[in-house]
Design brief:
CATH superfamily of the largest domain in chain B: Vaccinia Virus protein VP39
Number of helices of chain A: 7
Oligomer: heterodimer
Shape of chain B: globular
Radius of gyration of chain A: 14 Å
Strand content of chain B: 15-25%
Strand content of chain A: 15-25%
Number of domains of chain A: 1
Structural class of chain A: alpha/beta
CATH architecture of chain A: 3-Layer(aba) Sandwich
Distance between the termini of chain B: 53 Å
Radius of gyration of chain B: 20 Å
Shape of chain A: globular
Strand order of the largest sheet of chain B: 6-2-1-7-8-10-9
CATH class of chain A: Alpha Beta
Number of helices of chain B: 10
Structural class of chain B: alpha/beta
Number of domains of chain B: 2
Strand order of the largest sheet of chain A: 3-4-2-1-7-8-9
Number of strands of chain A: 9
Chain lengths: 196, 281
């Protein structure tokens, strides 16, 4: 049985928030991490900057690159990132909700590819991207987490997902790291999550 | 089978439906999308289904097989890659710096822009070559699977609202003139100048099923193969290898790598970061 996959989305303030989550993750996290952050096309050194926060290596995803436990792969600027058959798939299809990369596009592909083994994490942001994708992860029995809007630099995005009923757990940034570690150490807590 | 995926359909069942749809399209119309990456293809199918007011891929299959106009719409949805002139300006800077000097040594230059869609990249390249003094001895073969997009590419029109974005890209791409010199505006539409079309041949070619049709000094195929699965990517890389002159140049999209294909050993990187490779074997 293949293990879990963690998908993280963030927008306004998302880079800093993701940095703090990465700082609380161990070097031997048992699952791949895929990320969609709304970023400027010129932000080409984001991966390098994020990699300094913790032990996990961070890189921009390449098309058809395989995932491995402990990788942190970012949607490149101006591309959508999807996941299929344990690989990254890129697309330059139109922006979704004005965003490319789109968090919904990533989350929805992860929901379909990994079902109850998917973990979706929605961080701070000023848009409503991510809610639909998180709902899909939840409907497929995966684990869904939103950053506590009270602690978010911009609460709109996590709040939208919570109000849409797509969030299983609302956590502060430090707690998100712990939750990911324990989720990745067990095979299928998602069944219980989906049954709620 | 119990389905607890409330309201979203069973993903395995949808994959089966997609396989059947693609098989049907291939056998009935001859277009072969079977080797495409399903995750991105699926989103395009969803959009067509929404536009056609259909709720399952099986319903789409039925309509596509019985209604040619629907197939046309689906073909358009599956084959158009929306792009911009001088997308990834840095790529064009690298092309100017690393490839143009090599091309100067040839008396006549053949370029293949594979999967040209509506022509934005083709014309960007034509402008670059014109500014490098190479356009007059170049022929660009721009191909796409879809006849309808080729007509649009041939017209060379773009919405005038795009002009400022394109002009910025053009400058970042190292443009040495003014982007506005390359088009004329009429009634909200900008039309690229005649000269940029003189040495361009637009033709239908299917990367999935057609063979090599010439030998080229440069092949550009950027952000087209990202829509293909790995085995199909390998096939197309074989086609490009067969179609490149010895020492010919292959240019890929920013996040596409030859490293992940069977053909890695036949190329040396000319500019790794900008995905420019030179055939050596």
């Amino acid at each position: 049985m293949v293990g879990r996959v963690v998908a993280i989305g963030g927008s306004w303030g998302g880079g800093a928030a993701l940095g703090r989550v990465l700082a609380s993750l161990p070097g031997d996290l048992g699952a791949p991490v895929v990320v969609a952050l709304h970023r400027y096309p010129g932000a080409s050194r984001l991966a390098e900057q994020l990699g300094r926060h913790g032990p996990l290596a961070v890189a921009d995803a390449e098309d058809k690159q395989e995932l491995w436990p402990g990788c942190v792969l970012l949607a490149p600027p101006d591309y959508h990132l999807l996941v299929e058959g344990g690989m990254c798939v890129l697309s330059i299809d139109e922006p979704v909700r004005y965003s490319r990369p789109s968090i919904d596009v990533l989350f929805e592909s992860v929901a379909d590819a990994y079902r109850s083994r998917a973990v979706g994490v929605l961080l701070t942001g000023a848009s409503e991207d991510g809610s639909a994708g998180l709902a899909r992860i939840q409907a497929r029995g995966g684990l869904t987490i939103a950053q506590d809007p009270a602690s978010a630099e911009c609460p709109i995005m996590p709040r939208a997902a919570i109000e849409a009923g797509a969030v299983g757990r609302v956590l502060g940034l430090e707690e998100i790291g712990e939750a990911l570690v324990s989720a990745c150490a067990t095979e299928d807590v998602g069944v219980e999550e989906g049954a709620r | 089978m119990a389905d607890r995926d409330r309201g979203y359909g069973e993903p395995e069942l949808e994959i089966l439906e997609i396989e059947l749809l693609l098989e049907g399209i291939h056998r009935h119309y001859g277009f072969d999308f079977r080797g495409y990456a399903y995750s991105s293809l699926k989103r395009r199918l969803w959009r067509v289904m929404a536009e056609e007011h259909l709720s399952t891929v099986s319903e789409l299959q039925s309509r596509v097989l019985h209604d040619e106009a629907c197939m046309e719409r689906l073909l358009r949805a599956l084959s158009i890659n929306v792009t911009a002139m001088f997308r990834d300006p840095d790529f064009f800077v690298a092309f100017r710096d690393k490839v143009a000097p090599l091309l100067r040594t040839y008396p006549f230059i053949r370029v293949w822009n594979a999967g040209c869609s509506t022509g934005e990249e083709t014309y960007s390249l034509a402008i670059l070559l014109a500014e490098e003094g190479l356009y007059e001895r170049t022929r660009i073969y721009a191909t796409d699977i879809n006849d309808a997009v080729l007509e649009r590419a041939e017209a060379g029109d773009f919405p005038v609202e795009k002009a400022s974005e394109y002009a910025q890209n053009y400058l970042k791409a190292g443009g040495s003139g003014a982007f506005s010199d390359y088009y004329a505006t009429r009634e909200g539409t900008a039309r690229l100048s005649r000269r940029l079309k003189d040495n361009v041949v637009f033709a239908q070619h299917n990367l999935v099923s057609d063979r090599s049709f010439n030998e080229f000094h440069v092949i550009l195929c950027r952000n087209v193969m990202i829509y293909f699965g790995r085995p199909l990517q390998d096939r197309v890389h074989g086609l490009f290898y067969d179609s490149l002159d010895r020492l010919g140049i292959l240019g890929l999209g920013q996040k596409e790598s030859i490293r992940l294909t069977r053909y890695e050993g036949y190329y040396e990187p000319l500019d790794v970061h900008h995905r420019l490779y030179r055939r050596i074997g």
